[in-house]
Specification:
The chain is α/β, with parallel strands linked by helices. 17% of the residues lie in helices and 64% in strands. The termini are far apart.
Length: 179
């Protein structure tokens, strides 16, 4: 029977509770609380994230707050963005004072002058917000849209007819060539 060797215990890797990044770059940050200032971060995951004058490619967290920052993609519970921008965001509750490309949220509060490309939300509260495409269950306030629900339906119908026509024409032209 072989004797068991004494193996020293392996230290478990633990997630740090708090990470503070100032004037630095990081590829990946994972912690309970992350504070980022004047920095660039690739990916970030934390329960609470506070970003100031920084750039982040992607992040996820329960409570996310950003000021004067640009973010690629956000997935979060409660997200607040002031004077910055985000490419794509998915959140339960969102407060936006800035610019966003694609927003999907259950509840969205937008400040006057904020702009969103494509907005999908259960409830939107806003003052003079501009958006290209709006899909919302309830809207409170003035929202300027290029496409609303009725125009989306009309645009979809026109696109479907045009696509069908092009395919039919292509089939007709290629059938004649083969003969």
């Amino acid at each position: 029977m072989a004797k068991a060797k004494n193996v020293p215990p392996v230290e478990e890797l633990t997630t740090p509770e708090v990470v503070n990044l100032v004037n630095t770059q990081a590829e990946h940050v994972d912690a309970e609380l992350v504070r980022v200032s004047h920095s660039r971060v690739g990916r970030m995951h934390a329960e609470e994230i506070d970003i100031t004058r920084s750039g982040v490619i992607g992040l996820s967290g329960d409570h996310v707050s950003g000021r004067d920052s640009w973010i690629g993609a956000v997935q979060g519970g409660r997200v607040t963005l002031n004077n910055g921008g985000v490419v794509a965001i998915q959140a339960e509750q969102m407060t936006l004072n800035g610019n966003a490309g694609l927003v999907q949220a259950n509840q969205l509060d937008m400040a006057e002058g904020s702009t969103v490309g494509i907005l999908s939300a259960g409830k939107v509260s806003a003052e003079k917000v501009r958006t290209v495409l709006l899909l919302a269950g309830k809207v409170e306030g003035t929202v300027e849209t290029v496409l609303d629900n009725r125009r989306i339906l009309l645009a979809s119908l026109v696109a479907g007819i045009a696509t069908g026509g092009v395919l039919l024409l292509g089939k007709f032209l290629f059938r004649r060539r083969n003969r």
